[in-house]
Design goal:
Number of strands: 7
Mean pLDDT: 96
Largest sheet: 7 strands, parallel
Helix content: 40-55%
CATH superfamily: NAD(P)-binding Rossmann-like Domain
Distance between the termini: 28 Å
CATH architecture: 3-Layer(aba) Sandwich
Keywords: Oxidoreductase
Organism: Secundilactobacillus kimchicus JCM 15530
CATH topology: Rossmann fold
CATH class: Alpha Beta
Protein name: 3-oxoacyl-ACP reductase
Strand order of the largest sheet: 3-2-1-4-5-6-7
GO molecular function: oxidoreductase activity, acting on the CH-OH group of donors, NAD or NADP as acceptor
Number of helices: 7
Shape: globular
InterPro entries: NAD(P)-bd_dom_sf, Sc_DH/Rdtase_CS, SDR_fam
């Protein structure tokens, strides 16, 4: 199927590699214009624009934890594409990967700043842009994790931010709906997805825990984000979509 997102403009943070790029590929295939952001991976951003074409894509370097960077991204989006229909809050970091008593405050705060505060700032900026340019309609998709549904033993910071994103999604979704504002907010909870973030050495231990018998692909998250960005999901408000090969079944 094509054109499910025809005429729509989407911002995808962390959109130049891994899950973010998988989402972008699905979005462009379905007719969307995409604004892709990343903090450090500028080369991949330029390559993504070349892959999709300058008429369909724009790359903007961004630190999602900085409000001024969000203002820059919104301004660049509106300058090129004139409106905003979809925000996919995908950018995130894995955290320190240590027991809670061994984690430094600085590491904790960095994970919170990127994974949770970044989502808050993105939602705040996107809602204002959708009100100004899109008749207060749109879709916000927060990429959380199965760690937002269960605590991971050596990821207290990551688990806390992904759980926080889950409830931030619900709070914003109900607030907008009860005020009659047609901007939907939902969360997506990936399980193990085969990206560069997952060490090869860890895969033999991971695979037996997945009922499907294999890791997911970035496009598996992209396809659910197509649904949530499209008008097909108009009655999905504050919902959680788990895509994990059966891990949480």
């Amino acid at each position: 199927m094509t054109d499910r997102l025809k005429g729509k403009v989407a911002i995808i943070t962390g959109g130049v590699a891994g899950i973010g790029l998988g989402i972008a590929e699905c979005y462009v295939r379905e007719g969307a214009k995409v604004v892709l952001t990343a903090n450090h991976n500028v080369t991949a951003g330029e390559q993504a624009v070349a892959q999709f074409g300058a008429d369909n894509a724009l790359f903007i370097q961004q630190d999602v934890s900085k409000e001024e960077d969000w203002q820059k991204v919104i301004a660049g989006t509106l300058e090129k594409f004139k409106k905003l229909d979809i925000l996919v809050n995908n950018a995130g970091i894995g955290g320190a990967g240590v027991a809670i008593e061994d984690e430094s405050l600085a590491d904790w705060q960095r994970t919170v700043d990127v994974n949770l505060t970044g989502n808050f700032l993105g939602m705040k900026a996107a809602i204002k842009a959708m009100k100004d340019t899109n008749e207060a309609t749109g879709s916000i998709i927060n990429v959380s994790s199965v760690a937002g549904l269960m605590g991971l033993p050596l990821a207290p910071d990551y688990s806390a931010t992904k759980g926080g994103t889950r409830l931030l999604t619900r709070a914003a979704a109900t607030s907008l709906a009860r005020r009659g504002i047609n901007i939907r907010v939902n969360s997506v909870h990936p399980g193990w997805i085969d990206t560069a973030i997952v060490p090869e050495a860890a895969k033999p231990q991971i695979l037996p825990t997945i009922p499907a018998g294999h890791m997911g692909e970035p496009k598996d998250i992209g396809e659910i984000c197509v649904y949530l960005g499209s008008d097909e999901s108009k009655y999905a408000i504050g919902s959680e979509f788990t895509v994990d090969g059966g891990v949480r079944a």
